[in-house]
From TrEMBL:
Annotated catalytic residues: E365 (nucleophile)
Hydrolase as UniProt keyword: yes
Annotated keywords: Glycosidase, Hydrolase
Membership in a protein family: Belongs to the glycosyl hydrolase 1 family.
Protein name as annotated: 6-phospho-beta-glucosidase
Domain of life, source organism: Bacteria
Length: 473
């Protein structure tokens, strides 16, 4: 038997988010976003005003170091760079009529650097950073007027950058709104006070806005490819008990809903049953229904962990996960943050999504958060490095399963590892939870020089890209 291979033209690269690495949080006319009041990530309620302990205010200063960082990405051989545009750089409050030219010009410069190095941009329009004014004044996506604000924002981006950017994502991990309504939906009402009616209406508004942005993109340039982006977290029944299977299926359905609407243009029956059983009656106009028919060109997703589910809570122990948690799988090992490591789960997801939706797929987040140790190494550039063999092993094992899924027949456009350069964690707002191939000298107390150092995984990933995956073991 021959070893499966990655297809020619497969897009290798890395993924970031503006609020986690740009910094310059009030520079050149930028307004406040919800992230500027979330110094502890999703683990604590937001503050009322920005506080000095919010590491995201400076991030890793990509805003001033973008040329240096993109040159490092190019040195690894990237073909694609996923980054997000900060909504409040373009519309500081979110509901203005006229965009902020200085914000637009910054992303022009970023795109200039990408083009200089032959790196294709993959741009996320909204990545957990709703303008603060929209959250406080409108309660985020609970308000139908948000659709119009988002349409205006998206149109500005497509008209400005559409001839330079082929691949776009509308909302990052859109299904996260079920579990983190402020971060994913800009909803200022505390989660414990938020009604099911308002939550599901907010979800509907986001889905309509996503479909509308897809329509606008295709009107401006039919060659633009717009994708949705969801958290992929496969849920296994803890036991063969059919009741456990049903519970696991219900959790999967709660995530499938977002992909089903983006790919099929209408709500699935199982979701409508959920609404009925929870007494929710969505306000859906005929215009909404027509808009939802504008389906995406591809499906992208993040993958870090799988979970289990059981109908009997006494059977299982709760583990950790990306945004939401589940029952711990007794067969799997865990990361330092309690996320279970399941490379085969990625192959399962790829086959599942391809068979379900028949749309090209794109893995736009995958990686290992760990506490790295920077050490002196005479052979390293700059004299320092991180010997992160644990990260290499994690990524190798996942990419081997990606290769298997491609051999299974899955149509996969590319792979962008999460946090290819150390940045501030979304879930905990820490720097010590590091994902990158590049170490950034910044720490949880805000200290550090911000100097960049290549980790051992930098050379490893460079070789993976150079060989188009043939070097994987």
């Amino acid at each position: 038997m021959t070893t499966p291979t990655f297809p020619e033209g497969f897009l290798w690269g890395g993924a970031t988010a503006a609020n986690q690495f740009e910094g310059a949080y009030l520079t050149d006319g930028k307004g406040l976003s919800i992230q500027d009041l979330m110094p502890k990530g999703i683990t604590a309620p937001p503050t009322q005003e920005p506080t000095p302990d919010n590491l995201k205010h400076e991030g890793i200063d990509f805003y001033h170091r973008y040329a240096e960082d993109i040159a490092l990405f190019a040195e690894m051989g990237w073909g694609v760079f996923r980054f997000s545009i900060a909504w409040s750089r373009i519309f500081p409050n979110g509901d203005e009529e006229i965009p902020n030219e200085e914000g637009l010009a910054f992303y022009d410069r970023v795109l200039d650097e990408c083009e200089k190095h032959g790196i294709a941009p993959l741009v996320t329009i909204s990545h957990y950073e709703t303008p603060l004014h929209l959250a406080r004044e409108y309660d985020g996506w609970t308000d139908r007027r948000m659709i119009g604000f988002f349409e205006r924002y998206a149109r500005v981006l497509f008209e400005r950058y559409g001839h330079r950017v082929k691949y776009w994502l509308t909302f990052n991990e859109i299904n996260a709104v079920l579990h983190a309504p402020l971060m994913a939906g800009g909803i200022w009402t505390p989660k414990e006070e938020l009604s099911k009616q308002d939550l599901y209406q907010a979800i509907h508004h986001e889905l309509v806005a996503s479909a509308s942005a897809t329509r606008i993109a295709h009107e401006i340039d039919p060659d633009i490819m717009v994708g949705c982006m969801i958290i992929a977290m496969p849920t296994y029944p803890l036991t063969p008990d059919p009741q456990d299977v049903l519970v696991a299926r219900a959790i999967e359905h709660s995530n499938y809903t977002f992909g089903d609407v983006h790919c099929r243009g209408e709500y699935p029956g199982y979701f409508l049953r959920t609404l009925r059983e929870q007494g929710v009656e969505l306000e859906i106009t005929e215009e909404d229904r027509e808009t939802l028919t504008h389906t995406v060109d591809f499906v992208s997703f993040s993958y870090y962990v799988s979970i289990c589910a059981t109908a009997d809570p006494s059977k299982g122990e709760i583990g950790q996960g990306n945004i939401f948690a589940g029952v711990r799988n007794p067969t799997l090992k865990e990361s330092e943050w309690g996320w279970q490591i399941d490379p085969v789960g990625l192959r399962i997801v790829l086959n599942d999504y391809w068979e379900r939706w028949g749309k090209p797929l794109f893995i736009v987040e995958n990686g290992l958060g760990a506490k790295d140790e920077l050490v002196d190494d005479a052979g390293a550039d700059g004299g320092k490095t991180v010997h992160d063999d644990y990260r290499i092993a994690y990524l190798n094992d996942h990419l081997v399963q990606v290769r298997e899924a491609i051999a299974d027949g899955v149509n996969l456009l590319g792979y962008t590892s999460w946090g290819p350069i150390d940045l501030v964690s979304a879930s905990t707002a820490q720097m010590s939870k590091r994902y990158g191939f590049i170490y950034v000298d910044r720490h949880d107390d805000g200290s550090g020089t911000l100097d960049r150092y290549k980790k051992k995984s930098f050379a490893w990933y460079k070789n993976v890209i150079a060989t188009n995956g043939a070097s994987l073991t």
